[in-house]
Amino acid sequence: MTPAPAIVLRGRADISGAPLFPELRLELPAGCWTGLLGASGVGKSTILRLIAGLDTGARFSGTIAANDGAPLAGRIAFMGQSDLLAPWLDVLGNVSLGPMLRGETPDLARAYAIIDQVGLKRHVRQRPHTLSGGQRQRAALARTLFEDRPVVLLDEPFSALDARTRAEMQEIAGRLLAGRTVLLVTHDPGEAARLSHHAWLMSESGLQALEVPATPVVRPVDDAATMAAQAAMYRKLRRLP
Q: What pLDDT, in 10s, does the model give residues 185-217?
């Protein structure tokens, strides 16, 4: 993997002339997890999709740049709330789908190794409909890891999971995405408190910095400082209009 860059987004966005988010500056420090928390509809996913270079339906006025001056295209992996697994492919086929779509020959030995890392070695030949929700998300995470990009964008990737499985997936993702520049869009203060080196609360008025513990991620769910940070984030969310 190439070194992970820092990324800075500066600008504003509107949809059909109506403001979506005001002028703001969001920095993603190199090799760190940045959490982006906020209510629905304020533009969190739009920011993530802008960085990914995906269509948003919004008009963005501003800049998005990496600190090394190189283009971001080709350096980003994306994982969304839906696992988006191809139902006609098994786990191995889904994990190695990216290179195949690009007309490249996938490194199947590496794919097997990543599948083993996320705990799906016994399910490598199973198709998505035979997997549990947690297993499907593990497959989606393995596909993201297989792309081996220094920048990873996560759009509420674990929100559909039960609490126990979500905690397990947070721990797996935190371990396997260490050293990458990660943006995590989430509605869950607990998730932001566990996973973020830096965190922001986004509202219609812009961005507000959130405090997170000065301890390594992924933080234990029952850690006192993590629970206090979660509670403080929740209180700020409650005070939003």
A: 999 999 999 999 999 999 999 999 999 999 999
The C-alpha atoms of residue 52 and residue 71 are separated, in whole angstroms, by: 11
First to last CA, the chain: 42
Q: Is 21 exposed, middle or buried (0-12, 13-18, 19+ CB in 10 A)?
A: buried
Side-chain half-sphere of 199: how many Cα atoms within 13 Å? 30
CA–CA separation, 89 vs 92, rounded Å? 8
Full domain range(s) for residue 27: 1-75+178-241
Angle at alpha carbon of residue 221, lines to 220 and 223, rounded to 5°: 65
Convert 119-146 to b/e letters by CB count within 10 Å (16 or more is b).
ebeebbeebbeebeebbbbbbbbbbbbb
Going by the DSSP 8-state scheme, the letter that residue 107 receives in this structure is -
Query: Is 39 part of a structural domain of the chain?
Result: yes
How many domains are there within the chain?
1
Longest dimension (CA), the chain: 52
